[in-house]
Amino acid sequence: MPRLRIINGRTNTRQVTAQFRDGSASLPLAVVPNSFTLRGDNAEVERTPRSGRKPLTRVAGQQARQIGFSTRLGYTDWHRSVDLQLNRLRRAPARGVAVRFTNMPSVFAGWWLVESFNVDVEQLTPDNRMSRVTLHWQLVELVDAEVKLSRTPPPRRKPPARQPVGSTYTVKSGDSLSLIALRKLGNAMRWPEIFNLNRSQIKNPNLIYPGQKFRLPPR
């Protein structure tokens, strides 16, 4: 029975598998890639240009890691086509599904998004289907922040404190609002408070009459 394999330079003694996050494809790989490129383990530097001087630089955050590598896919019998397996591999990246690799070097740990997935055809079957291809992977580290909703109810707002009810005062002959404020509130400058509480009775703050009964604010 022909065996599907990833062809590369070094045999891997452990089973390596490419697994897609939605479960749509899981392909066993026969070997670990001979070489790969790794980028993004450094901080992201932001530059602000300045006329006639060196730009200002600062660390803006951490870059997402990126990995690029190539593998070859084919049957030992070149009459067999890899179209079906290749289509399974191509379908998930086209939908933005993340992939991870088991038993690979530690730099491959975690989930990755397939930024580009290109295929070079090396050999065709007698009926012009793909028999052996080289797969070129460009991956970028998946960094997804989950929004967690707190189950703790928001604190209840306290109702506004009620102003304590003040006393009342009956106007006597010779009284004025400032004199009442001085006697009852301890400050003659608080007469506008009395005026505002009793606007229904006081049309002119300079004219008040004996017998009028005014509400007073708290002292």
Automatic annotation (TrEMBL):
Pfam families on file: LysM (PF01476)
InterPro entries, per the entry: Bact_Kbp, LysM, LysM_dom_sf
Gene3D superfamilies: LysM domain (3.10.350.10)
Parts of the chain that traverse the membrane: none
LysM domain span: 167-216
Name this protein carries in UniProt: LysM domain-containing protein
Species whose genome carries this gene: Nesterenkonia rhizosphaerae
Lineage, top ranks: Bacteria, Bacillati, Actinomycetota, Actinomycetes, Micrococcales
